Structure formats: structure tokens, C-alpha cells
TrEMBL record:
Source organism per UniProt: Tricholaema leucomelas
Gene: Ano8_1
Domain Anoctamin transmembrane: start-end pairs: 165-352
InterPro entries: Anoctamin, Anoctamin_TM
Family: Belongs to the anoctamin family.
Main localization (coarse): membrane
Compartment(s) of residence: Membrane
Residues annotated as transmembrane: 176-198, 210-227, 281-304
Domain of life from the UniProt record: Eukaryota
Membrane topology classification: Multi-pass membrane protein
The keyword Zinc-finger is annotated on this UniProt entry: no
PANTHER family assigned: ANOCTAMIN (PTHR12308), ANOCTAMIN-8 (PTHR12308:SF51)
Protein name per the record: Anoctamin
């Protein structure tokens, strides 16, 4: 709500010139007084973006089937290429647009007010870190959410619509719920066996010890089968959703938040951002380690103080009963406050450690 017109126009021009594939609309919310950039792209632009990031898509059966990285030159070989609404999933469109936004790079000597960018530094993440941009998020599609609400959330004793979840929320979320459903179903076996074992166990100690050993052996066997079966099931999902043969992290583009100086890689002979390891090690030894030790010491002292207060309160018999709970309330407040404080410190240390 405090953003000036110069900042808005500066960012808008950079997006439109640096990412001509995107369509940007600027809107102002009358209640929150916040400016928002609504970003989208045409189908042709999304196809070029899929080619650029190497998005894997299913190939038509007559061209061999399977999954292959998308190529605009051979777009006719991919399934549903003629259908603009169904070729890309919601999550794939988000990935392409976010990829473009996070790779909008600054030129040498570029600056916005008191923010001075390094050459090649990602603009959007830096503005988000400085608070100029509050949030970057995809908008929900109510039509799909209502369909998922009926087929997933409100459904009883029905299989999860994992393909629909994958199309909307992405592979990671779909794999999580696939694992959760598989784990819940697999827990039926130890639950049934344990209940039967408990029913027929005698009350004497020897019988209970034997049943405990039998149940422990069963759990070891069950856990082995569970893990092996999930490996097979997970591989099936990965192949089905096109993530089985994704490139290794070592050859992917580095995170846009990474900062460093440009150099020619001695390994690949390509241009890359480089940050000297000795600087990172120096920061870890002189900043990260002392900060962590201070945080641990602070937590230890605060907990020790709460325990001493607890003993003091319990030693005074005349105090009301409600006062006896005061040390526990204080400890709960301290834990909550420290959790928020340490989270901010951890984010800061992580960001500084990547430079």
C-alpha cells in the first residue's frame, strides 16, 4: 500500500521487456490498498517455456509412447497438443511462469531506490526479500477445487483421485497423499494381527513376553514388505507422472536466490555464479556456529529457570492451585516465542550461507 508509482512502473517495464512471453495486468485492491500484478501467458508462450525448461510430456502411441522432454519443433508428437485447456496441467503452467519470473536478471549497475543489484542477480527474489513484493502465489481455480472437494475431501471409502491431485497441486503433493493412503492401508495388517494376538494372550508374564517377541518379528517382516512394495508403487507413480528420469540436480540451473560472482566453470567451461568456499566456511565458523551456540545456551537457561520456578512454586503450600500452573504457562510462552525467533534466525543464516 506504500509502493510508489516509480517502483510499480520500474518493475512492470522490467517484466514486460525482460519476459515478453508474459501478459501482466496491474490491479489495485480498494480495501487492502495493495497493488497486484496478475500474470499469465498465451498457449504459444507456455509451449516455448515448456521447451526451455525441458518439461516432460507423454508422447502419442504412434510415435513410440512414453515420456519425453517437450520440443516445439516436434510438438505434433505429444498427446493432447491440440487441446489448449488440457495439454498443460495447472501446476505445469505455474512452474513455467514462476521459472520466468525467478530468472528475470538485473543488468550491470541496475538499481531501484536504495536496492543495488549485482549483474545477473534475480530481480524478483531480491525484491521479495526486501519487502517490496509481499507475496508470489498462484491463484486457485474454483472449478477444479469444487470437483476435488466432492471426489476427494467429501468422498467416503473411495480411492483418492491421485491423478487429479497431481494435475492441480503437482507431483510432490500427489506423492505425499499417495504414500499416506498406502501407509494407512498397510497399517491394517499389524492392527488386525496385533488385535488377534492381544485377544489370545494370557495374563501371565511368560505369555505376554512371547506375544511381544512374536509381534516384534511380525513388525520387522511387515516393515520390510511395506518398504519394498512402496518402492514399486512410488516408481509406478514417478513413471506415470513423468518424474522417473528427471535430470540430476547437478546439471540443473542453480537456485535464483544464489548470489556470487560470474566466472567460467573449470569443469563445464560454461558461465556460472561462483562463491568462494572459504568465505562460506568463514561465515559458518564466525557467525553460524556462535549464533547456534548462543541460541542453545539461551534455551537451556530459560528452561532451567522455568524448572527452578516450578520447584519454588511447588514448595510454597499456601499458593492457590491456579498459580501452580504459572511456570508451565511461562514455559509454553517461551517455547512459542523462541520458535518464531529461531525460525527467523534460521532463514537468515540459510540465506547468508548460500552467498
Amino acid at each position: 500500500d506504500t509502493t510508489d508509482d516509480h517502483t510499480l512502473l520500474w518493475l512492470l517495464n522490467h517484466i514486460r521487456l525482460g519476459i515478453p512471453e508474459l501478459i501482466v495486468q496491474v490491479r489495485h485492491h480498494k480495501h487492502t490498498r495493495v497493488y497486484a500484478f496478475f500474470v499469465t501467458a498465451t498457449y504459444e508462450s507456455l509451449l516455448r517455456g515448456a521447451d526451455e525448461i525441458g518439461l516432460r510430456k507423454p508422447v502419442k502411441a504412434e510415435f513410440g509412447g512414453g515420456m519425453r522432454s517437450f520440443s516445439c519443433e516436434e510438438d505434433y508428437i505429444y498427446e493432447n497438443i491440440e487441446n489448449e485447456l488440457y495439454f498443460f496441467t495447472s501446476q505445469e503452467r505455474q512452474n513455467i511462469i514462476r521459472y520466468w519470473l525467478e530468472n528475470l536478471r538485473a543488468k550491470q549497475g541496475e538499481a531501484l531506490h536504495n536496492i543495488h543489484f549485482l549483474e545477473g542477480q534475480p530481480i524478483i527474489p531480491e525484491l521479495a526479500a526486501r519487502g517490496v513484493i509481499q507475496q508470489i502465489f498462484p491463484l486457485h481455480e474454483q472449478r477444479i477445487l469444487k470437483r476435488l472437494m466432492k471426489s476427494w475431501v467429501q468422498a467416503v471409502c473411495e480411492a483418492q483421485p491421485l491423478d487429479e491431485i497431481c494435475d492441480y497441486f503437482g507431483v510432490k503433493i500427489a506423492l505425499y497423499f499417495a504414500w499416506l493412503g498406502f501407509y494407512t492401508s498397510a497399517m491394517v495388517y499389524p492392527a488386525v494381527f496385533g488385535s488377534i494376538l492381544y485377544t489370545f494372550t494370557e495374563s501371565d508374564q511368560t505369555s505376554q513376553d512371547i506375544c511381544c517377541v512374536v509381534f516384534a518379528i511380525f513388525n520387522v517382516i511387515w516393515a520390510t514388505f511395506f518398504l519394498e512394495e512402496w518402492k514399486r508403487r512410488g516408481a509406478e507413480f514417478a513413471y506415470k507422472w513423468g518424474t522417473l528420469d528427471t535430470p540430476a540436480e547437478s546439471i540443473e540451473e542453480p537456485r535464483p536466490q544464489f548470489r556470487g560472482i560470474k566466472r567460467i566453470s573449470p569443469v563445464t567451461s560454461t558461465e556460472e555464479f561462483y562463491y568462494p568456499p572459504w568465505k562460506r566456511l568463514l561465515f559458518q565458523c564466525l557467525v553460524s556456529l556462535p549464533v547456534c551456540l548462543v541460541c542453545l545456551s539461551l534455551v537451556f537457561l530459560l528452561m532451567l529457570g522455568c524448572f527452578q520456578l516450578q520447584e519454588l512454586v511447588l514448595s510454597i503450600q499456601e499458593l492457590p492451585r491456579i498459580v501452580r500452573f504459572l511456570p508451565k504457562i511461562v514455559l509454553a510462552v517461551i517455547v512459542t516465542a523462541c520458535d518464531e525467533l529461531y525460525k527467523r534466525i534460521a532463514y537468515w543464516l540459510n540465506d547468508m550461507g548460500e552467498w
